# Entry
Amino acid sequence: MRGSIAIWHDKRSDAAEGYAPRVEVHVNIWRNSERAKSRNFDLLDIGFRLKEFRSLRTLSISLPFVVSEADNVTDLFEVMHDASTLSAIFNETLTPGGMQDGARIFAASNTETKRTQFYVARCPAEQRRLSRIGVGNDEVSVITLSDEFFENLRQRVGDHYVRLRIRLPINVQNGFVSTIKPKDSAFLSTISENEIVEFRLNERRNFSAAILEQLQARECGLIDISAVHYFLIRDMGVEMTQSHTSFRKMRRLEPGLWGRYLQGCAGMNPDRMLIYHWSSKPAAGEAVDSFTALATFRAYYTGSLFAYGAVIVALGAIGSAFQGLGTGLITMPGWSLGCSADRAAACVSVASNAMVIALLSAALYVVVRSRR
# Structure
């Protein structure tokens, strides 16, 4: 499965020269603290501040995993129409204006100067398409924003912003996160798990053949990216061990500001989370060619108490069986292994203890193998 997001566009046939589509990309990866519960989700929020979109016909985002249901992709327009949430997302004091164009757009203004910074746009389900391309390990999901969506935006001059959320079940493999579990986890009540989170954007060597085929289409190409802001949000109980480069900023999520933004997201407690910020912003007029951010973490969590208890009981039983086996052999009359009538009780004891040892050893092997 390819591990890089790819963002490409399809231009209108009447696109004028000098108006190349250009966006600023914001990505939030929220790692769930309750990893063992498959009913919970990790979140990938991706936002686009559209700097130049007059020639855009469609905008496509490929994700390095398969989104099985369209309901797992939602628009965050309604959530953002709140002063606290809007300010938390952009880390500046912003005020949302009234709804416009039939509740499809609102202005985000600086609270102090009252100046409009950008417009936030709704992207309803009928104006985006979820599809899959590629086969096997190269299969990825693609979200495409339609020409109808951009046609609505072209009625107004200025930057426009759209933000989507992709909910990914924890037990689904994705191209960002890989974990290394200890091989002796069955013998531990508290498990230390090493985790690598690597975010890649427009890394061409990670593109599948299907994506490369899309980029070779007549009017398609990777969109110019004016800046990338990548945020990784983790529970405080998870320890960062290293990063490929220094992050721009690390801070605790502000208590009370993120509650509405994460409402309904199980396992996400904003009061106990840290946010790490990496960014890339080239010189004026230039574009971000590609972007990579890698960080490793060590997480501690409670292992399977059932498996741990079973292993402890089995080890105790094996020890007791070994003791009984040794005692039976030592006390066997004449130190002979023959089982005549006068040795029957000792033979039964030796045989039963040997069987217990064999069965419990096999069970321990199965448990340890299953926990790797």
Q: What stands out?
A: Residues 41 and 169 are 5 Å apart (CA to CA). Residues 305-331 form the longest helix (27 residues). The first strand starts at residue 6 and ends at 11.
